[in-house]
Amino acid sequence: MSEIYYPNPEFAKDAAIPSMDAYWELQNKAIEDYDGFWKGFADEKIEWLAPYDKVLDESDAPFYKWFTNGKLNVSNQCIDRHLDTKADQNAIIFEGDKGDAEHITYGQLSTRVNKMANLLKNEFGVKKGDRVVLYMPMIPEAAYAMLACTRLGAIHSIVFGGFSSEALKDRIEDAEAKIVITADGVFRKGKPYMLKNVVDDALSQGGKSVEAVLVVKRNNEEIAWVEGRDHSYNEMINAQSDICPFEPMDSEDPLFLLYTSGSTGKPKGVQHSTAGYILWAQMTMEWVFDLRKDDVFWCTADIGWITGHTYIIYGPLAAGTTTVMFEGVPTYPDAGRAWKMVQDHNITQFYTAPTAIRLLNKTGEDEPKKYDLSKLRVLGTVGEPIDPPAWKWYYEVVGNSKCAIVDTYWQTETGGHMISPLPGATPIKPACATFALPGIMAEIIEEDGTPTPVGEKGFMCITRPWPSMIRNIWGDPERFKKAYFGDCKKDGKPVYFTGDGAMMDEDGYITITGRTDDVINVSGHRMGTAEVEAAIKKHDAVAAVAVVGKPHDIKGEGIFAYLVLKNPDDASDELKVAINQVIKKEIGAIALCDAMAFVPDVPKTRSGKIMRRILRSIVKGEEITQDTSTLEDPSIVWIIEAIVKEA
Ligand code: PRX
Fold it and tell me: What are the structural domains of the chain?
């Protein structure tokens, strides 16, 4: 059995959920009276502009509706309602790549968001329901833009700045965006890095719905300008009034779209709703990070991912805390940067991905000791499994064996945390997500709903709807049903399947064992194998391709491609570089392959399905235990194995 780390009693006594008894009291209330449980929190946490009439409407399952007909506005929830008590408190602390910092109070945030909302409304006619694409760096204007959209009821879709023009164009077109908000560029490791040119490329290839591009100045580099289409935020913003009344939104109005990879080549536009999302963002912020007065919270994600949405912007601001936004990377100018920031800004909670922890450990094992990290109370991880050695370093060296570590398991689709320790309550087993949060009915089951026996891998399902769940895939309700409610049933009814496998131990602790579908987790980012394969197939020399995840010391998993060429004589290192260039163009640098092997064929069943499990085993150097008799040509397995071993 693994070691257990108990909550620090000093800290636990004032925690939001101070014991496992308190946890079970909440969870049992949810089990006994699900609607009552959620009603209590919705009434306490949300500033309703008009009351809702039903907590949960299951009549059109799996298109669940929460807090039906209620009215609220997320920018009110995150800003206006705090102004009486927190106008002078920092809402955002921004630190730039070069160390420049800006403190933005709730009062200032209000002014800037109102101005931005007026700019979008008055100059570009943005209104409720319009889609606004953000291709933005990590600068405060990105936060203003998100909140301005919610103020007007426009639906934002943020595209991570590492995606290519092709990927950006696809997302703009799928959402039929009216406007794109971007910046000239950003600073990264002291140098300018450009974004606006990517938007220009995307729009030269398509995206005809876009009427305007709003450009924020950040690195002041020279950029191309399309007269009539491009507009300068910096020149226009001062003329805007700082009063823009917020739009009363229905609980179920879409709040934002966020595209994520699935098992087909086309990314899915995950659609979140207004009330349910903001309620759970706020609740998890308060519970899992055990927020207290004067806390300064730093989540190192990028706003282009769900972690950035929920735990840089919406969760912290709805909860009225101070959130840190960082433009740069934690290893520049050296591997002590992150710890220096923790010291300089008096950070109390630090939330990052295991990839970053592994990197900071490898590149600067003793760096944390050089800084005063004594204000830290809670350390978090997200996005991928954390290995016990990285966990221990995080706990002992960064947290000085005093901080709770919350290994938070969740997804783009879940909106907020699903399974996580609670810092004042949960006895922690390293590298284990532990228990479902109160209100979340997480079960490890077989396809027919029978519970998976202790110690065996089963399907990680959430068997009751929850407020912050995905509502739809933008424009594709059939895919929504099939992707999430097509695999597992409980009591004969389809239930939400996460796509992950999981295992429960004899004490009821849940460990996530990884994706069961063809999705690779690179540095905590989700990459669909089909998406990468579709990009590679665009290279003329390639006849067939299969990509799989390969364990990687820092990134968790890297991408490995098996390539079958039209003409085997074309095989060369130059071709590998050229194929990575195609991936960069089609998706972005985040999807580059770490390694490739030229093979005569890939193992396929007689019906033509690629046997990826075998390819995964080969790349890990594992013995092939799978049945190869169903393959079209079983001998190919040994040929590929020999090629990969040699490479
Ligand atoms: O496989 C799980 C893994 O990340 C996937 C979700 O990816 P994405 O939607 O990009 O969201 C990442 C940030 C929430 C999951 O299906 N994952 C997430 N958190 C953990 C995890 N795997 C293990 N442990 C975690 N704590």
Answer: 33-328 (3.40.50.12780), 519-646 (3.30.300.30)
What gap in Å lies between CA 311 and CA 146, rounded to an integer? Answer: 14
Query: 512 alpha carbon to ligand 1 midpoint, in Å?
Result: 9
Per-residue tokens: 623: 């013995």
279: which residues sit within 8 A by CB, 6+ positions away?
38, 41, 42, 45, 46, 67, 467, 468
Amino acid making up residue 176: E
Query: Token digits for 380?
Result: 């978090």
pLDDT band at residue 1 using 50, 70 and 90 as cut-offs: very low
Report the nearest atom of ligand 1 relative to the CA of 519.
Answer: 1
Q: Please give all residues whose beta carbon lies within 6 A of any atom in ligand 1, as ranges.
A: 260, 306-307, 382-385, 407-412, 433, 498-500, 512, 515, 521, 526
Distance 307 CA to ligand 1 centre (A): 10
pLDDT in tens, 584-640: 999 999 999 999 999 999 999 888 888 888 999 999 998 888 888 888 888 999 999
303 close to 186: Cβ distance less than 8 angstroms: no
Hey, whose CA ends up nearest to atom 14 of ligand 1?
411
Give me the numbers of helices (H) and strands (E) for the chain, helices first please: 22, 31
Contact present, 612 and 548 (Cβ < 8 Å):
yes
Q: In angstroms, what is the span from residue 514 Cα to ligand 1's centroid?
A: 8
Ligand 1 mean position to 533 CA, how many Å? Answer: 22
**Residue 413 Cα: closest atom of ligand 1:** 9
Full-model pTM: 0.96
